[in-house]
Amino acid sequence: QVQVVESGGGLVQAGGSLRLSCAASGRIFSTSTIGWLRQAPGKEREFAASVIWGTGSTYYAGSVQGRFTISRDTTKNTVYLQMNSLKPEDTAVYYCAAAPRRPLLGPRAGRISEYDNWGQGTQVTVSS
Q: What is the per-residue pLDDT across 73-100, written as a single tens digit (0 to 9) for each?
C-alpha cells in the first residue's frame, strides 16, 4: 500500500506553467510506478504521465508530450509534474496514483486500471 497526497494546483492563464507535487509514503519499491492522471468536467479520467520509481523511466500521453515533464526525487519521496504551455483543455482535477509493485512501461502505463492507490486530487484551471 502506498499513500499519495497531491499539491500545487491552482489557476493559471493559458501559456503559463504550474508544478504539481505528489508526496508518497508507505511501501514504495524500485519497481513501483507513480502516475499523474486527470479528469476534466464531464469526461472520463485519463492518463497524463508516469514514472518508474527505481529507474526514472517515464511515459507520456500524446496530449501532454513535450509540454509536461514528470520526475521523482527519491530522497524526498516526491513525484513532480511540471506543466508548461498550459492550455484551457488541460483544465481538470489531477490525481496522483501508484502501482506499488508493477513497473508499468509503454501503453500499459496509460491504463487507469493498473493503478491501485489514489490521492484526493488537486484542481488545475487554465483560463483562456
A: 999 999 999 999 999 999 999 999 999 9
**Burial class of 3 by CB neighbour count within 10 A (0 to 12, 13 to 18, 19+):** middle
Which grid cell is 33?
Answer: 510506478
47 contacts 111 by C-beta, under 8 angstroms: yes
User: Is the pLDDT score of 8 beyond 90?
Assistant: yes
Backbone angles phi, psi at 64, to 5 degrees: -115, -10
The 3-state DSSP class for residue 7 equals strand
Would you list the DSSP string of 35-84? Answer: EEEEE-TTS--EEEEEEETTT--EEE-TTTTTTEEEEEETTTTEEEEEE-
pLDDT for the residue numbered 116:
96
